Amino acid sequence: MDQRTCLVTGASRGIGRGIAEHLASEGANVVVNFRASEKEAADAVEEIRSNGGTAITAQADVTGRREVEAMRDLIHDEFGEIDVLVNNAGITQDTRFEEMTREEWDQVMDVNLGGVFNVTQTFFEDIKSADEGRLINISSIVGKQGNFGQANYATAKSGLFGFTRTIALELARSGSTANCLAPGFTQTDMLDEVDDEIQDKIRSEIPLDRFAQIDDIAAAVRFLASEESSYITGEVIDVNGGMDL
Ligand code: NAP
Fold first, then answer.
1. Active-site option among 79, 123, 153, 163
2. Does the CB atom of residue 36 touch ligand 1 within 6 A?
3. Model-level pTM greater than 0.70?
4. Buried residues in 40-57 as b, exposed as e (16+ CB within 10 A)
């Protein structure tokens, strides 16, 4: 990954931070995007630098096109065009469908799909003109299976499957690829928000009998970002401990 520049959205904590650290450990220049968690993002960059890597923070709410475009200018000034985009930023607003407000629906669509639209379109030319550019969208097992209380989130995450396949076709002639990663339940702040009782029930349904660790997910993204994945495009890669068997 030497000389490659990678942008990871929502990389101040959780899975995004893990992905940023893994890509930096391969020698890439890494951009740690965040919305509000400035200190956490600075800590992530500090950690990468202390391990000999190269990284910067870049604030932008992915729902704001202008903020995303300003982030592109900052990245271009610092590193030039990007080679790898990881659309990781995502939120949940869980409640059973009959009680879900239109606002809760819209907020999740706005970040989990609208944000992907904004960032991918803003950096599309970079990825297309890169030597084997990579677009990696972080979906979820919930996009495949659905999940009680997550009608908004499941809809947005399954939307990424169609988006990824279409972009894979539109990128193919340039030699760049687009793939989706569908993690199972992963030990992060997002999972901590789920009641203990429900966490226990979910864990009991995982054949490998544990939640994913951030490294499990980040290692798969590192592979998709590498040149070793050159001939894989338009795919959904499951990393879920056997939950979908
Ligand atoms: P997390 O711990 O809640 O972290 C979310 C990250 O996204 C934070 O860095 C947050 O930054 C950022 N973010 C949220 N809204 C943003 C916005 N509008 N603009 C820019 N950044 C924004 O989440 P996670 O568990 O690591 O999840 C990361 C991704 O994996 C998500 O797409 C999620 O849907 C997916 N996923 C998670 C699991 C799981 O079990 N954890 C399973 C499958 C898929 P700020 O703090 O600055 O807002």
1. 153
2. yes
3. yes
4. bbebbbebbeeeebebbb
